[in-house]
Structures
1.
Amino acid sequence: MGRSSERSVEILGAARALFAENGFEGTSISDIAGAVGVADGAIYKHFPSKRAVLYEVIREFYEPVIDNASANVLGISGTRERLRYLIWLQLRAFTEQPELCRLIIAEARPMEDYYESKIADLNRRYTSLLVDVVRTGQVEGVFRGDIAPTMIRDLVYGGIEHIAWGAATGRSTIDVDEVADDLTRLVCQGLEPRPATADQLGVRVTRLENLIERDQG
Amino acid sequence: MGRSSERSVEILGAARALFAENGFEGTSISDIAGAVGVADGAIYKHFPSKRAVLYEVIREFYEPVIDNASANVLGISGTRERLRYLIWLQLRAFTEQPELCRLIIAEARPMEDYYESKIADLNRRYTSLLVDVVRTGQVEGVFRGDIAPTMIRDLVYGGIEHIAWGAATGRSTIDVDEVADDLTRLVCQGLEPRPATADQLGVRVTRLENLIERDQG
Amino acid sequence: MGRSSERSVEILGAARALFAENGFEGTSISDIAGAVGVADGAIYKHFPSKRAVLYEVIREFYEPVIDNASANVLGISGTRERLRYLIWLQLRAFTEQPELCRLIIAEARPMEDYYESKIADLNRRYTSLLVDVVRTGQVEGVFRGDIAPTMIRDLVYGGIEHIAWGAATGRSTIDVDEVADDLTRLVCQGLEPRPATADQLGVRVTRLENLIERDQG
Amino acid sequence: MGRSSERSVEILGAARALFAENGFEGTSISDIAGAVGVADGAIYKHFPSKRAVLYEVIREFYEPVIDNASANVLGISGTRERLRYLIWLQLRAFTEQPELCRLIIAEARPMEDYYESKIADLNRRYTSLLVDVVRTGQVEGVFRGDIAPTMIRDLVYGGIEHIAWGAATGRSTIDVDEVADDLTRLVCQGLEPRPATADQLGVRVTRLENLIERDQG
DNA sequence: AATGAATGAGTATTCATTCAT
DNA sequence: AATGAATGAATACTCATTCAT
């Protein structure tokens, strides 16, 4: 495999730095070759296309994160703790490597062949960890069963993306642990199975009263 | 303003259709000029750049939605109902105009000057409606006060984006009303201020018992 | 039509000279643009592709020849004279413009879309003149009717191509009038309808005797 | 000679198949090396260049055909039969191996060094068989002596090329024996030495009568 | 307001050939 | 005989933007 040669490593290193700094479209094969100190054509001895370089850069960064997450999540007991771990992990990844995360979200994901790529596979493997945690929570009765676990997955990862994006672009700052706590508490409480409380019923009664008054007004 | 001339309207109409179909990068000034039936150069009598055309197309679509939302949200009583309305509105926008939403998310947002653009301003105005609702909820005591309203904003809009994206790209289907109900319930319940219930404590006690037993086993 | 602009004329002139000298593959768009004194991209305001330039160069040369041939051949009476005229015309074209003929034969014809191109249409129109002449000769009884006119067309034009090619590449020299006479005489005599002669029968009898002797040997 | 090593044979076999399928330009050294299962550079231990591989592929195919033709033509008695044999042989070659013939005609022949190559030599040796047959016919009085044998060679091989080309590209179909008969008869009759016949004179007299009447009308 | 020709920089990819090992 | 990484030149085509008319 070309993947293991020293030159491939050099190319990926240079590409990673350039992609992070200038984006995928903003980086040419010539830029990468120049940074490595080889001719343009040499890149194609190691990778079949520019996009393959991008995908490999992402994979190299993504895979260990996923392997690590897969291994650790099983060692954590308790649905809530597992959820918090996955939320915290993603927040930390975004906070520590905002450029690579931007690359994945803003450049790789909109590509038309993305959903057939290895990267999308990795992403599915990764996010399915959270789906499994939620599903287990539902089975054990810790979570309500009337909500799709995939919706929770989208809510959590979409939410984290937006929260972290603001921090990554310098428009806000976040404390990873604190945000992880807040999100976990929100989601767990939101998913908590419980009988209707007087409070909750009160809200619904108010709404009905309003509607009725409007009709009569 | 040249923006309101008949020709400008024609240009924006053609651009909107082409951008929606082929994306921003996939549409050339020549394509737009050709669709309108004018020479390439004519576009520049009405808009300073291709990107300005994009931003104007988005603004034209976005602004009425925001004005409508701003007006309506005030006519709705109850924090929960207001929240549900904003969630439902965003889900419907995504479901009915997936191409334009894709344009905003995947093409406009990654642009480097996006956050200084009018579109970002519009977006801020729009999403601040939700921030205000949450803040009001906190003031009124309906919501916990220990969580940043902006975080809720990011969570809700980021979550909706992911949920709707899957539907827009055909990988899943959603029922707008149902999802709006689910999300509203989840967030409201998650934000509900309340002392620990026996139920909730029970769960945590059980967990501790489990951990202790494991240590002793 | 861009075809009529002065710049188009300049481009075609430069392309014609360069194609004739260096061939199609041996000429780049940059070469043509450079010869005209414009930027590379300017070529594409007048022609959609490099191949379109080639086809237009050929058409410009070919069309008048064909129009002229179509008009004149009708003014000539007698099948033999018409045939000789077409043969002579083709020989002269090859002798006077060997490079352009080479371009058509060696570069345009092997192209995969050639048979769907305008050039192939022109060629068909041109060579069908000879088919019509032969067919008329057959109808009038001047030529035998037991041979396909299209085969004669292929024989004559294929033959001329080879004959003239040797001259064009400097490997031989030809006298156009003389060769035209020879070819015309050969083809007309070869197509002459006549009863079997003793000579001819003798040849065939000899062949049969040989075959029989071989079998008995 | 390295040419005869086992590896060389493998290379030529792979190259032949690939050239026939994808053409010379459409086949890369890498393709050939890959098909053989060796590294790219290995090809250059056996052949000095890609073009040399092409020429060798053609030679390997061509030489036996020529040796066979040379041997057989001497075993055939009668100028007409010899001529027919050569015509038939060439038609059959085209019909059975259209791809290799296409390779020679459309790819090898247009190459600039073709006429100095071994292939051109082979071709000359091959086509000179027909020149010799015609010349012998002239010496024996079977053919007119007032026509250059090389012209007959060009006419016959050029004609066959065009006739067979249409069939090879699927635009027509041919029956090899029938076409061989037609061509042989046409050429032999066309070359037949004979005084003007009454028939022939009759045609010419008629034409003159027509011309005179037209002038008087 | 409109034209439309011109710009000119920009770029991924291919491939025959070489050469140190 | 073989490797296979490296070369480096080569190239058609695109397109936002300008500007003389």
Note: Residues 5, 7, 38-42, 45-46 of chain A lie near DNA strand F (CB under 10 Å from a C1').
2.
Amino acid sequence: MAERGRPRGFDRQVALRRAMEVFWEHGYEGASLSELTAAMGINAPSLYAAFSCKEALFREAVTLYEQQEGVLVAPAPTAREAVAGLLRSGAIAYTEPDKPAGCMIVLAATTYTPKTEGIRDHLRERRRAAKAAVRQRLEQGVADGDLAPGLDTGALADYLSTVLSGMSVQARDGVGRDGLLAVADAAMAGWDRLTSGEAGRSEPLASR
Amino acid sequence: MAERGRPRGFDRQVALRRAMEVFWEHGYEGASLSELTAAMGINAPSLYAAFSCKEALFREAVTLYEQQEGVLVAPAPTAREAVAGLLRSGAIAYTEPDKPAGCMIVLAATTYTPKTEGIRDHLRERRRAAKAAVRQRLEQGVADGDLAPGLDTGALADYLSTVLSGMSVQARDGVGRDGLLAVADAAMAGWDRLTSGEAGRSEPLASR
DNA sequence: CCATTTCTGTAGTGATAACTCCAAAAGTCT
DNA sequence: AGACTTTTGGAGTTATCACTACAGAAATGG
């Protein structure tokens, strides 16, 4: 009934959390096995027995990151409030004291080497999913009637994702929480123009 | 008068350009010596004789990148036109066919390992300089009278830098030129609100 | 108690990283 | 031509990478 054999001498979830923090700060390739095992408090064979290989460990770390640290679109009455909250919660999440600055999904593998293509693709897919969630919320706004029908939600989601991923770079460069919150507010300054039809030239986001 | 000894068998500038392209695509750590020498068409001893070490080669590559591929604030009658042009030229530069997507300065070393701190700091400094140039142009606009006095040029420069660095990430993720140009336009939608005093709550960028 | 199962630490695997030794090659200077 | 200077290619050096073989430790089942 109970598990047979010698029981594991460490808490798998705690070790995974430590590994995630190392990946978050140093990226996939920048996190060496020796640094990972040191942070996790275990030796290499225990790591491989519990997580198979470095890539599998990283994928689990990404999942844990999304669960524990991920910036999500929170429920809000209107799309505008939801998006403003998303940007502001990003500004806060990317500048948590005692945590690495910026978003792990954005920063952990910006460049690809032949043997890390799988990692890059996986993170790219997660970013794509995050962007899709933003777009989803915008389409909800259209359905609810607080956004104009015919709005190019894809283009607006591109813009908002651009600001969020840029905030990760700025956070790594030392821009603090107040600075990023100001960026979030600045990014919202064009909201009315972006979502109504009264744009600069014609209707920039009405069709692409 | 002429150089003594056996003449170099390759064009240093051409080899540097090749190295820059490799660093641009794969980042500092992702570019291995063997890949660099293969792309440059030379053997390791020639590389070290001409460029000292990998880090020095990278620094020269960064300088060349800024000279040949850098996105600059072009002269324009008003700050608004200068900034709009900057964002649009970024969108175009980051999506050049047959060139790596995104900005090398932003993407080549987003994560740091103990032995690449110097690289990270160097790139961070280049980004800081780029942001300072944007801010400089904004202050010129204040001096010229086309931007309100008391405008928080630092905060606005933070916002614009955020958009530009975010565009590099989006370009790597496959957003094309049209998509990034739409992002550039979207980022400008709030310009009037950001630069005049008629902001959402009070005057978001008037003081931080 | 003994067999079985699983985990842990030591120590090492082959591969690749950045970098260099050295003799031959290819020029200039006198 | 011969001394001198610098570059070049092949081979090798040391360090670190991700990963693992193996034997002993620590649990359960009979």
Note: Residues 117-144 of chain A form the longest helix (28 residues).
